[in-house]
Specification:
mainly alpha; globular; binds aspartic acid; 74% helix; Proton glutamate symport protein; single chain
């Protein structure tokens, strides 16, 4: 059975059993809820997510360095970088515009006057746009890596990669070392991803056993609006980009992207999913190493269409709830700020909601409004993270196709990259001179 099917089974089994456990109505103090779900399944899920996260900082650094060095050598890095970042911004702007438009039509925030925030929300001061921009450049790259500041790691890797491509022989030697590290890292993913069906099962079981359906019921209109726009982004916007710009088969694309989307859905973290996305884009969709290594880590960090959609709907919802009219200029500000906020949003669970503070502040809406939607954010976070990851892959294949970096045979082959290569174990007794 192939891995995608196994992950799907793990996911559905976890979902069904979690819902079942909730339906039976478990005693939260009882052994099953506290020890089996709260400890055992939670530990399993966290171990899986950590096994992916373990690779993220080194992988982003090494793969972006190799990607930008090989692109730098062909003089393509500026062009490819511009195109990638441009497309990322455009898709995010479209996403939030769509979200705002649909929310204005559906009006999820009217008629919910009885709604009271069940939890207090203490707004943390959100970073200003100026600080977010300054923060892109690290003063100490090692500290940036230790603290997992992805944007800073990206900048450093890009600078170093471009410099390597201009440093002649020493550059070539450094690059060859990092290319080997990159290859070894991809091997590590291939090994660890085999745990995905079990990890996903634990995550889904726990999540669905504890999901607050009562909150979701109260906020059904908001929940469904966000969900509907996410689906529109996946089924209208992305297919349009894939067919019109990339001239690629949409069905083949979505069949192959299921694996990272499922991991994203279960883990709610595009950063943790990054190793899986990178592997899929390269081996299953046929994007060459230089392009994938460049576009995917960048996208996981700065491109969050799903998050922007939630922010667009949430802003309109909160304005409607408080009876505040948003002017056309306000709406433009929402689109702009949500697009920029997506760059600064860390690719981990729940951060999209914190960055919503920045959007609300820009248009003068009460940030306490976030407390209203806090209860339904868990499930929405899962859905938007899956969209975020799909968005990165859409741009990766599109950029690759238009820049001659896509192997069409691999893209079209339904079985490409499915078979795990036989572990190509290093023979320590081999004759090094052979
Ligand atoms: N969880 C999202 C991600 O990792 C970010 C967010 O919207 O909270 O992509």
């Amino acid at each position: 059975m192939n891995l995608t099917v196994r992950i799907l089974i793990g996911m559905l089994a976890g979902l069904a059993l979690g819902l079942g456990a909730q339906w039976i109505g478990l005693d939260p103090q009882g052994w099953f809820a506290s020890v089996f779900i709260g400890d055992f399944l939670d530990a399993g899920g966290q171990l899986f997510v950590n096994s992916l996260k373990i690779m993220v900082v080194p992988l982003v650094f090494v793969s972006l360095l190799c990607g930008s060095a090989s692109l730098g050598a062909t003089g393509k890095v500026g062009r490819l970088g511009g195109k990638t970042i441009g497309l990322y911004m455009v898709t995010t702007a479209i996403a939030v515009s769509l979200a705002v438009t649909v929310a204005l039509i559906v009006q999820p925030g009217t008629g919910v006057e009885g709604l009271v925030a069940t939890v207090a929300y203490e707004a943390k001061p959100s970073p200003s746009i100026k600080d977010t921009l300054i923060d892109i450049l690290p003063t100490n790259p090692v500290a940036a890596m230790a603290e997992g500041k992805m944007l800073q790691v990206i900048t450093f890797a890009l600078l170093l990669g471009i410099t390597i491509s201009r440093s002649g022989k020493p550059g070539a030697r450094v690059l060859s070392f990092f290319e080997d590290v990159n290859e070894v890292m991809l091997k590590l993913i291939t090994m660890l991803i085999k745990l995905a069906p079990y990890g996903v099962f634990c995550l889904m079981f726990k999540l669905f056993a504890e999901l607050g359906w009562a909150e979701i019921k109260k906020l059904m209109a908001y929940f469904l609006t966000v969900a509907a726009v996410l689906v529109m982004q996946l089924t209208l916007v992305y297919p349009l980009i894939l067919t019109l710009i990339g001239r690629l088969n949409v069905f083949t694309f979505f069949a192959k992207i299921r694996e990272p989307m499922m991991v994203a859905f279960s883990s709610s973290s595009s950063a943790a999913t990054l190793p899986v996305t990178l592997r899929t884009v390269e081996f299953r969709l046929g994007v060459n190493n230089a392009t994938a290594s460049f576009v995917i880590p960048l996208g996981a960090t700065i491109n969050m269409d799903g998050t922007a959609i939630m922010q667009g709907v949430a802003t309109v919802f909160i304005a409607q709830f408080y009876g505040i009219d948003l002017t056309l200029v306000d709406l433009g500000t929402v689109v702009l700020t949500a697009t920029l906020a997506s760059i600064g949003t860390a690719a981990v669970p729940g951060v999209g909601l914190i960055m919503l503070t920045m959007v609300l502040e820009q248009v003068g809406l009460p940030v306490e409004g976030i407390a209203l939607i806090l209860g339904v954010d868990r499930l929405l976070d899962m859905m938007r993270t899956a969209t975020n990851v799909a968005g990165d892959a859409v741009i990766a294949v599109t950029v690759a196709k238009t820049e001659n970096g896509l192997d069409q045979v691999v893209f079209d082959d339904p079985d490409a990259g499915l078979v795990f290569e036989k572990e190509n174990v290093v023979d320590l007794n081999r004759d090094p001179t052979a």
